Amino acid sequence: MRRLARVALLCLGCAVCSLLYGLSQLALSLEQEPGGGGGRERQAREPATAGARRQAGSAGRDAAGSGRCKNLSVSFWNSYWMLPSDVCGMNCFWEAAFRYDYMKTHPSEKMHLAVVACGERLEETVTMLRSAIIFSIKPLHFHIFAEDQLHESFKDILEEFPYEGRVNYTIYPITFPSESAAEWKKLFKPCASQRLFLPLILKNVDSLLYVDTDILFLRPVDDIWSFLGKFNSTQIAAMAPEHEEPRIGWYNRFARHPYYGVTGINSGVMLMNMTRIRRKYFKNDMTPVRLQWGEILMPLLKKYKLNITWGDQDLLNIMFFHNPESLYVFPCQWNYRPDHCIYGSNCKAAEEEGIFILHGNRGVYHDDKQPTFRAVYEAIKNYSFGDDLVHSMLQPLERELRKTTHTYCGRVYKVFIKQLTKSIRDLYARRSKGT
Ligand SMILES: *[C@@H]1O[C@H](CO)[C@@H](O)[C@H](O)[C@H]1NC(C)=O
Ligand SMILES: *[C@@H]1O[C@H](CO)[C@@H](O)[C@H](O)[C@H]1NC(C)=O
Ligand SMILES: *[C@@H]1O[C@H](CO)[C@@H](O)[C@H](O)[C@H]1NC(C)=O
Ligand SMILES: *[C@@H]1O[C@H](CO)[C@@H](O)[C@H](O)[C@H]1NC(C)=O
Ligand SMILES: *[C@@H]1O[C@H](CO)[C@@H](O)[C@H](O)[C@H]1NC(C)=O
Ligand SMILES: *[C@@H]1O[C@H](CO)[C@@H](O)[C@H](O)[C@H]1NC(C)=O
């Protein structure tokens, strides 16, 4: 009797298994139906492009599986069993695996943008990313380093962005070399020194544009990216000067450590060829031997800990003081800060051509001290993707800017919209040509 029960149990087990198998086959065949079959075949032959498939779907080229799949960008940190039910888990699983490979084998085909967001910086970071998406031409990959409690919010917001197959993103936790994590974290603002470690963390990325969260792009990221191609054989990174006017410069008046050039450099917009950074041996004032990036950071911090004020930016200044041939300096309109106008306009390049990248440091997007900066921030934050840029962004912005002419920065409010106007015109010209 007991044996019979065992046999029956075994049969039941087999039946359940075959039912499951049958259902999964059915699901697969459904996925392959109208238009889906081609997609699956292509995916098998050409795995590297699988990731683009769902995003490409929105461009209408390949609507494979659009009935069953959401048009989501899925970072490889989403484990496939945690995806929403209407995303094809199987595809995402392979996609994630292949995407990782793809980044290794095609390192420089797209532009990589990194940002480090901690504390209350979610909205500001998202506004920065929006400004990058609005104007950029080549595909972008965002590398977002954020405190754990912000990850979900970033995912939710980024999944709502209209990508048109142009943007991917990856969200990372904040990490430091374990033996010195505590020391790095307390240096400067929480997490800010993370950027020093980007060449060591993003080992498979060739080049990277790092920006602070309080950056706004007023022209395509492609344009600053193109500086990489202008590097001579010794240059590894590009930044803007900290000041144009030495009389109000900080480093030349107060620094108790070496700094680059006449007024130092600002690290809020930092373009890096990380392949070169990882290869270079840096001259330094600690040992007669040259040290690599990974070896130099901790000794540098130890030596200058008591003398630095602006944290990791000071360390970069010290590093490029000793290795000046490695830095490409771009003009102030690529990193335009309140310092460039609060005591009168001193960024000549911006007066001529307008501001290319706005950097609202010292919290000026969120208080009433510099209403010109705040107005630009709000114009981009208020804008809904897809609306007309002239009517929904440029015109309301100009109206707001005209109200600020009682301030020093407001007096030159035209430099805040000069390039923006041109970027919008160029964007619509590209669209009407259909490129
Ligand atoms: C995905 O893209 C296709 C093709 O443009 C579209 O028809 C479909 O509605 C989109 N699905 C979602 C969930 O957005
Ligand atoms: C996103 O990543 C996948 C896999 O690496 C790639 O195939 C796809 O082209 C990327 N999309 C964009 C817009 O870069
Ligand atoms: C730190 O600043 C003090 C005071 O200016 C100076 O004497 C000292 O040499 C500085 N230390 C380093 C490592 O530069
Ligand atoms: C970065 O430098 C490496 C080594 O010199 C070079 O092969 C690569 O093309 C450079 N990347 C870019 C984007 O210029
Ligand atoms: C590259 O440019 C920097 C800055 O202008 C300069 O100091 C360096 O000597 C140049 N390197 C070469 C190899 O010409
Ligand atoms: C943005 O929206 C807020 C609230 O709706 C409004 O007060 C502000 O004037 C807008 N700013 C711009 C520049 O459009």
UniProtKB/TrEMBL annotation:
The keyword Transferase applies. Residues 1-29 form the signal peptide. Keywords: Glycoprotein, Glycosyltransferase, Membrane, Signal, Signal-anchor, Transferase, Transmembrane, Transmembrane helix. Its main location: membrane. Gene3D superfamilies: Spore Coat Polysaccharide Biosynthesis Protein SpsA, Chain A. It comes from Geospiza parvula. Residues 34-67 are annotated as: Disordered. This is Glucoside xylosyltransferase 1. It catalyses: 3-O-(beta-D-glucosyl)-L-seryl-[EGF-like domain protein] + UDP-alpha-D-xylose = 3-O-[alpha-D-xylosyl-(1->3)-beta-D-glucosyl]-L-seryl-[EGF-like domain protein] + UDP + H(+). The lineage of its organism: Eukaryota, Metazoa, Chordata, Craniata, Vertebrata. Glycosyltransferase which elongates the O-linked glucose attached to EGF-like repeats in the extracellular domain of Notch proteins by catalyzing the addition of xylose. Its EC number is 2.4.2.42. It is an enzyme of class 2 (transferase). The gene is GXYLT1. Pfam families: Glyco_transf_8 (PF01501).
